Amino acid sequence: MIFAAYSLLYRAALTAVLLSEYRKRPGHLRARWLREKRGVIEETSDAGGETVWIHAVSVGEVIAAVPLVRGLRERFADLRIVLTTITDTGQKVARERFGESVRIAYMPFDLPGPLNRFLDAVRPKRFLIMETELWPNAIRICHARGIPVALVNGRISERSYRGYAKMRFFMEAVFVRMSALCVQNKTYAERLRKLGARSETVHATGNIKFDLVIPEKRLAWTETLQSPMLIAGSTHNPEEALLLDAYRTAVKAYPSLNLILAPRHPERFGEVEMLLKKSGLPYQKRSQMPSVKAAAAFTGQIILLDVIGELSAAYAAADIAVMGGSFIPHGGQNPLEPAYWGKAILCGPHMFNFPFLDEFAEAGAIRPTTQESLAVDIIELLGDPAKRTAMGAAAKAFLAENAGATARTLDILATLAPAHSS
Q1: DSSP per residue over 12-47, as a string?
Q2: Is 61 part of the annotated catalytic residue set?
Q3: Which of 35, 121, 298, 336 fits 43 for a cystine, CB–CB 3.0-4.6 Å?
Q4: Given this chain, do its domains 2-206+404-413 and 220-401 carry the same CATH topology?
C-alpha cells in the first residue's frame, strides 16, 4: 500500500518535470535519455558470467565506484557490469573511467513499468547502490525478483536522518528489503538501525573513497605550467566570488600565481565566465586553450576548467587545493583527490559530508579556514614550501592508513544470498 502511494506521488512529480528534464538535455542525448529512462535497453547476453547492476547518481558516486568495479573484476573475471547514473555528467565521467568495459545507461524512472523492462533486459544477479540514493520501487522490485540489493559506501547525514525519521514506517519497509547496507562509519550504521534496517544486514565497512583510483597519466597542459598553482575544485555559487577576492589579494603578494577554477556543475560554466569578465582578472577557458605549449606561458592568470573529467588529474599540478562546497552549507567536495597527489589542502567550515575531517585535520593533512582568512592562509602556505610538503605527506599517509573498505565490502557482497520474494 505504501509503495502504491509512493508510486502515485512519484508519477505526479514526474509529470510536472518530465518536459523540462527532457529539454535541458543536449539534442544528441534526448532520445537515448528518454528511451533508457523508460527502461528500454538492449538485452544482456546469457553467455558468460553473471551481471551486476551498479547505480551511481552522479560524478562523485561514479568515481567512488571505480575501486568497487576494479575489485569486482579481480574477484569475478567473467562478471558483466551495468552502471546507471541520473546526471549527464555522471554518464560522461563513467564512459571516461570505464570505457567499453562497463555498460553505461541512465537509471530508469522509479516506476514498475520502466524498472521491469530494464530488469527483463539486463537480468542482474545483484543490485548495488552507491552511497545515498535509495529508489524505493527499484529496491522493492529487485527484492521481489530475488535479486539481492546492497548499499555500498553508504552515508546518511544528520539532515537526511531527521528527514527519514519523519517517515520511518516507509523507510523501514525499504531497508528490510535490502540484503546488506555497507556504510562508511558506525554513526551511519546506528542511524540505519534506528530507521528500521535489520541489524544483521548493517556493516560499518569504511569509506571506499580512501581506495580511490585516479589515472596516473597527468594532463599535458598542466605539466607545462611553471608558476605557483592554486586549484579551487568543484565550486558552488557564490564561492567563485569569494575565491576571486582571495586570489586578487594573493596575486599581489605572488604575481605569478595561477588559479584553476573548476565549477562543480557544467551548466554554470557560462555564469562563472561572466563573473570572470566582470572581475577584470585575466583568464583563459580550458576548452579554448590554444595549445599545450601556450600553457607554459601562463602566469598570474585564471584558468576556467570548463571541461569534464580533468579535475582529479589536474590536482597533480597544484601547490594548494581549496575544496569547493565548503564555504556554504553544502557539505564540501572530496578532499581525498588532492590528498592522493600529496597536496596542501584548505577547506571552509562546511565539510559535514566527510565525517573523517576532524581526524584528517588532526593529522595535519588539511587546514580549515574561513572566507575572511582564506587569502591570508593561501599567502602563508605559498611562502612556506616545507609546510605544504608536510601537509601533503600527512594527507597521503592518512589516505593509506584508511584504505581497505573495498575489500571489506566485497567480502560481504560475496556472501549475499537471493532475497525471498514478498
Answers
A1: HHHHHHHHHHHHTS-HHHHHHHHHHHTT--PPPPSS
A2: yes
A3: 121
A4: yes
User: What's the CATH number of domain 220-401, 1.10.3470.10, 3.40.640.10, 3.20.20.70, 3.40.50.2000?
Assistant: 3.40.50.2000
Q: Looking at domain 2-206+404-413, does it have CATH number 3.40.50.11720?
A: yes
CA–CA dist 382, 255 (Å, integer): 12
Rounded Cα distance between 326 and 378, Å, is 16
Cα separation, 160 vs 154, whole angstroms: 12
pTM of the model: 0.88
Contact between residue 72 and residue 49 where contact means Cβ atoms under 8 Å apart: no
- What is the bridge-based pairing of β-strands 302-304 and 320-323? unpaired
Q: Which grid cell sits at 358?
A: 576532524
Q: Name the residue ranges covered by the structural domains of the chain.
A: 2-206+404-413, 220-401
Q: ∠ at Cα 167 (166, 171), nearest 5°?
A: 130
State the catalytic residue, choosing from 61, 239, 240, 337. 61
pLDDT digits (tens, 9 = 90+) for 156-190: 999 999 999 999 999 999 999 999 999 999 999 99
Contact 175, 193 (CB under 8 A): no
